[in-house]
Amino acid sequence: MQRLFPVHHLRRGVRLSPLWSLTTLDAGGLGRPVKAAVPCVWESIPGLKCYKGRVAYENTFEGGGTLRFVFGGVAFRAKVYLDGELIAEHYGAFTAFDAIAERVPHGMHTLRIEADNRYGEDSALHVENDYYSFGGVSRPVDVQQIESAYLTDLFIRTSCEDGQWMADVQVTAVSLSDEDQTASVFVSAASSEHIFRSFCLPARESVTLRASMPAQDVKLWSAEEPNLYDASAVLYLDGRPVDDLCDRFGYREVKLEGRKILLNGKPLVIKGFNRHEAYAEFGSAVPLEAMIRDIQLLKDMGANAVRTCHYPNDPRFLDLCDEFGLLVWEETHARALNEHQLLSPHFRPQTELCAREMIAQHGNHPSIFIWGCLNECEDTTEAGAREFRWNLDLLRTLDPSRPATAALLDRKGSLVCGDMDVLSLNLYPLWYHPTDPADHVKNMIAWSDAHGAAGKPVIISEIGAGAVYGYHDPGAMKWTEERQAEIVTRQIDAVLSSEDCCGIFLWQFADCRVDESWFEKRPKSSNNKGVVDEYRRPKLAYTAVKECFARY
Ligand code: ADA
Question: Which domains does the chain have, with CATH numbers?
Answer without folding.
Answer: 12-146 (2.60.120.260), 149-249 (2.60.40.10), 254-550 (3.20.20.80)
